[in-house]
From TrEMBL:
SMART domains in alphabetical order: TPR
Top-rank lineage group of the source organism: Bacteria
Domain CHAT: 620-864
Protein name per UniProt: CHAT domain-containing protein
The species this protein was found in: Streptomyces griseochromogenes
Length: 867
């Protein structure tokens, strides 16, 4: 390229339009024996590239050369511009004092338009350092000059920066106005990197306004734009971590932050960004229940921020460090004082996190019995309950609930918890993806626990039932948002099935499949990401639970809801017009016993494991003592509905002696049982029979069932492909799916049934307009669920219940394929005679042969819902 003045000057805006091309051209300039002025520009461009996308040490070398060359060229404005760029790099390198001194010289050397650009960059540095008032002042001085010079690019940058500072101070409306104005300016430029940054900033604004699906969509769009420019995205990772945590995806946020830190270390990137990523990782680890990792990350972040003279950031990192220490079990007067000091400093900064720190100080003081001191801190935190974003209001209501508990006011506790959970409900229903709705409930776990404790201490069994229902299986209260006819999502689902099927075939042949597994993971990430973009379209959060309505609909049946308060199981037995409470055992003991029983059932799925039968039956007796206690003697003679908490979803309830001979069904909540009970079957619905590949028996029950039903749609062989199966399932009255089930504890919505063309996953079922009224899943592990959030369950069964399915039969353990066939035939015989799923399953178990394998097979299956 020629080294003409105009072409060289074009390199500076190009570094944020096409960074790679700008770098290449700058290197060409330096090889062409340029003048000191042009060489200064080229070194500055290379310094910016290395500062933002490469090695900060190399960046400083280039920028110092650029500064010296500008001085040789005797251009005061050129020198001022480079001094500003160098100041940014020095601050990012942790040399805050040197960086600010460089800015002082730059402001002094520059004039007019150039000085305005220097002021903008110093404002950016003030934001990095957490000096928000100073940042706003420098932007205020710079903007009129930039506008007068008709400098659209730098005006848009200044507006974007001012908006970001407003967000840090909680002024969302002001930020939104500035982002909108900046976006209009960016559309008139070719600054592709700046445009990507604007999309990222809009994502941050959407998050601050409470729209998590929009935030995730915009951040993903920004990542795609950065990817085309092949530039690292450390700030994007920091922001995505914040949004992921708010969506209940803390493990994903921790993985993102750690990966970004590793990349930053590998390229020698900015220490300021490393400190911010460490803080993001600490927050994510704390939210993910890993306090030790949170302590380690936060301690390093505090040290780095201190060395970088970034007091605002250091104070936020100290808050996370104290929270993690408390989560690890530490309590002391020193921690109360530290949390109070952090709260005071955050309040002086105008940080929205100040109430969170005050709540922390109050909570620690309460644990130490310092009631008066706790009241002071909690009163400060409680002020946030009336305004601000949902997390701040929930913090305020949590503080108010703790104040009421300390004062002995059960009514006050329940009022505060109700208001706080209402805030979270409103927020939860903005989310369209069932996974996000389930995971975000963890943010209300403390309020729910406080309400249950108050109900147990100050109210009767009916009140405890109402509060148990208030925060149980909320993901089932409304169907997830229907995925749009998104060609990209449908393409990813199709590609996922193909890759998964190829990987399964390769595993069966013993071939290595790392490339297929990598592609499968990539497609899973893409599918999850696209479903997370869905916004909730359900107004409010459904009808409140009505205990009277439940008692009216039960008739002769009994419903036993198991509530867990402070680790102890309480049985709330509903029936005969009243609710009674019986004491159970420790939840931890019951969970451990359920795992032992599951291990025994796995052994009993094989004939040689029959010696385990007495041990499994003994486990059933112990489970009954722990989970039903004296309530077992008051179940009456009619049907029984069990409503367990998420932690007990693996209990084989039919194994318990008091339940073996009963018409028994299981439901995630009493509310979901009521909805299932009142769901009408589709008019003119037809049975659908599906036989997937690879079953040991070949799905031997399906041909016999086809003869029984006559008019049933039968899908097998190549006809049993996912698109056709979904088409036939939509609106069916009865569906029997004989297909291998795979449960994914790491990602439950990728739990699957194996069809001819690959896996039929939960995300596929969520595309149905109405899932079948009754579904029978005859293979292993189809009833296995993952417990997430406060008390939510994700998996095949819970995906179907909100979509119009009133009843499901599925197994929670591996089963013997041969023993399943007679059980299924007997089950359908009962259905053909007009019985419900629960009645037919009870009779089918009774009709099984008496050997251990057939008994274990019957115990492994359960009827869910009320059809």
């Amino acid at each position: 390229m020629t080294a003409g003045r105009e072409s060289v000057l074009e390199l500076l805006p190009m570094v944020f339009a096409d960074p790679g091309e700008a770098r290449a051209r700058a290197e060409q300039v330096l090889h062409s024996r340029p003048s000191p002025l042009h060489a200064s520009i080229a070194h500055q461009v290379l310094g910016i590239w290395q500062r933002d996308f490469g090695d900060l040490r190399i960046a400083l070398r280039h920028l110092r050369q650029a500064r010296d060359l500008a001085a040789r060229a005797e251009s005061a404005d050129r020198e001022a511009d480079v001094l500003a760029t160098l100041g940014v790099a020095l601050v990012h390198a942790g040399r805050t004092r040197q960086g600010l001194a460089s800015f002082e010289r730059g402001v002094a050397r520059g004039s007019g338009h150039t000085r305005a650009r220097v002021l903008y960059r110093r404002a950016y540095v003030w934001w990095v350092l957490g000096h928000h008032r100073e940042a706003l002042e420098d932007v205020r001085r710079a903007l009129p000059v930039l506008r007068q010079a008709d400098d659209g690019i730098w005006t848009a940058r200044a507006l974007t920066l001012r908006a970001t500072v407003h967000l840090a101070l909680g002024a969302v409306d002001r930020a939104d106005a500035d982002f909108t104005a900046a976006e209009r300016l960016w559309e008139t430029t070719g600054q592709e990197h700046d445009k990507a940054d604007a999309v990222e900033s809009r994502g941050l604004a959407a998050f601050r306004s409470g729209d998590i699906p929009a935030a995730l969509r915009l951040l993903d769009e920004a990542e795609e734009r950065y990817g085309k420019l092949e530039t690292p995205t450390f700030m994007l990772s920091i922001r995505r971590c914040e949004v992921l945590m708010a969506a209940g995806l803390a493990p994903e946020a921790l993985a993102e932050a750690d990966a970004a830190i590793a990349l930053l270390d590998r390229i020698g990137g900015q220490p300021t960004r490393k400190a911010e990523l460490l803080l993001a990782a600490a927050r994510a680890a704390r939210s993910a229940g890993d306090p030790d990792t949170a302590i380690a990350r936060a301690a390093v972040a505090v040290r780095l921020f201190t060395g970088q003279r970034r007091t605002w950031w250091e104070t936020h990192a100290r808050l996370v460090l104290i929270e993690a220490r408390v989560a690890a079990g530490r309590r002391s007067g020193r921690l109360v004082a530290d949390a109070a000091a952090v709260a005071e400093r955050l309040a002086s900064f105008g940080s929205p996190a100040a109430p969170q720190a005050a709540l922390l100080a109050g909570r620690i003081a309460l644990a130490l019995g310092r009631t008066a001191e706790a009241e002071r801190h909690l009163a400060v935190a409680a002020r946030s309950r009336h305004g601000g974003p949902p997390p701040a209001r929930m913090t305020g209501w949590a503080a108010q609930a703790l104040r009421a508990r300390a004062a002995g006011s059960g009514r006050g506790v329940l009022k505060a918890c109700r208001r706080g959970l209402d805030v979270l409900d409103d927020h939860r229903m903005t989310l369209g993806a069932s996974e996000l709705r389930a995971r975000v409930t963890a943010q209300g776990a403390e309020l729910a626990a406080l309400a249950q404790e108050a109900s147990l201490a100050h109210g009767g069994p009916r009140r405890l039932l109402e509060w148990s229902e208030r925060w149980r299986a909320t993901v089932l209260s409304a169907p997830p948002a229907r995925p749009p006819a998104d060609p990209a999502l449908l393409g990813s689902l199709t590609a996922y099935r193909e890759i998964a099927a190829r990987a399964e075939e390769a595993r069966g042949e013993g071939r290595p499949i790392p490339a297929l597994e990598r592609e499968q993971r990539r497609l899973e990430r893409d599918i999850r990401s696209r479903t997370h973009h869905l916004r909730g379209d359900t107004p409010g959060y459904g009808d409140r639970f009505d205990a009277g309505r439940l008692l009216d609909r039960l008739g002769e049946a009994r419903l036993a809801e198991l509530a867990v308060v402070d680790g102890q199981v309480h049985v709330l037995l509903c029936g005969q017009g009243r609710v009674r409470r019986f004491a159970g055992g420790a939840l931890a003991e019951a969970v451990a016993e359920a795992e032992h029983v599951q291990a025994g059932l796995r052994r009993l799925a094989h004939p040689q494991g029959e010696a385990r039968l007495p041990l499994v039956e003994a486990g059933g007796r112990r489970l009954q003592e722990l989970l039903l206690g004296d309530a077992a003697a008051h179940l009456g003679s009619g049907p029984v509905v069990i409503v367990p908490p998420g932690a007990l979803h693996r209990v084989p309830w039919a194994l318990l002696p008091a339940l073996r001979e009963r018409v028994l069904s299981v439901s995630p909540s009493a509310s979901s049982w009521l909805r299932a009970r009142e769901t009408e079957p589709p008019p003119g619905g037809r049975p659908v029979l599906v036989r997937g590949p690879g079953l040991a028996t070949g799905g031997a029950e399906v041909p016999e069932l086809a003869d029984r039903y006559g008019t049933a749609t039968v899908l097998e062989g190549e006809a049993a492909q996912v698109p056709r199966v979904l088409e036939e399932l939509d609106g069916a009255a009865l569906a029997h799916l004989a297909a291998h089930g795979t449960f994914r504890a790491d990602s439950p919505l990728f739990s699957a049934l194996r069809m001819a063309d690959g896996p039929l996953i939960v995300h596929d079922f969520e595309r149905l307009a109405r899932s079948p009224y009754r579904i029978i899943l005859s293979s292993c592990d189809t009833a296995r669920l993952a417990s997430v959030g406060a008390d939510e369950l994700l998996g095949l069964v819970t995906a179907l219940l909100p979509l119009g399915t009133a009843g499901v039969v599925a197994s929670s353990a591996p089963v013997n394929d041969a023993a399943v066939v007679p059980l299924m035939l007997a089950l359908h015989k009962g259905l053909d005679a007009g019985l419900s799923l629960a009645e037919a399953l009870r009779d089918a178990r009774t009709a099984q042969p008496g050997d251990a394998v057939h008994q274990a097979t019957g115990w492994a299956f359960a009827a869910f819902g009320a059809a």
